Amino acid sequence: MPQKKQDPQGKQTKYESENNSINEAKSQEIKPSGGIKVIIPAYNEEESIAKVIAEIPEIVQEIIVVSNNSTDATEENAENAGATVLQEHRKGYGYACLKGMDYISKQTFDQLRTKPNIIVFLDGDYSDFPAELTKIIAPIIEKDKDLVIGSRVKKWREKGSMTFPQIFGNWLATSLMKLFFNARYTDLGPFRAIKYHKLLELEMQDKTYGWTVEMQLKALKKGFSYTEVPVHYKNRIGTSKVSGTVKGAIFAGIKILGWIFKYSFK
């Protein structure tokens, strides 16, 4: 992986400093059998992207930032921070994730560049704590789980970090999945890890904001083993591109419910 550069403006809180120290120690214990790659979809995240990259643990083989039509300095800042930067001009969260997957599938792997065993998805807005990646991947490495979701539990959420539409939408979606599929999900959080070969088996299709629920539903239908781990969540840097607008929240909600009902009657 390219050498990551320290975010020059990054100032850690006491919690962040302690959390990073704990996770750095944890990363020494976790030794994945294959490589770990991180895919970060990003749209106009120039203020946050370098901070996200700087706090991702060193055990990660490659950080892939997919700029989804960014018009600011997101791409430049990500590249300067040590990430591989791709461009996806078709607008949509799913399009950006698929672009990252396509890039990985076309890589040539040899003794120096091993095929990834785990793919981690992480947003570029700095609302998650990237150092908690070690917690996200631990159940895959230690318990052979196929999919791990970072659950943004209430007691670890900063006030205002999730809007009411997000909270209600999460509750409704996970309740419906429990009703129809006996699922144990509590969140549709974007911070997640999945075995690479299992990700390919899902044959992901959603191009926009139904991406997370599509992954979770297909994992259920295919009988994948899964679990959730509680993660901290803070107010993002900048304005949300989805939940920050009524139109965006409604559109995301329709996409999520559409996937649930589609699979409920299959």
Automatic annotation (TrEMBL):
InterPro entries registered for this protein in UniProt: Glyco_trans_2-like, Glycosyltransferase_2, Nucleotide-diphossugar_trans
Segments of this protein annotated with the region Disordered: 1-28
Gene3D superfamilies found in the cross-reference section: Spore Coat Polysaccharide Biosynthesis Protein SpsA, Chain A
Alphabetical keyword list: Transferase
Glycosyltransferase 2-like domain boundaries: 38-171
GO molecular function, one term: transferase activity
One Pfam match: Glycos_transf_2
Keyword match Transferase: yes
CDD domains: DPM_DPG-synthase_like
Biased composition (Basic and acidic residues): 1-17
Domain of life of the organism encoding this protein: Bacteria
Protein name in UniProt: Glycosyltransferase involved in cell wall bisynthesis
Organism encoding this protein: Salegentibacter salegens
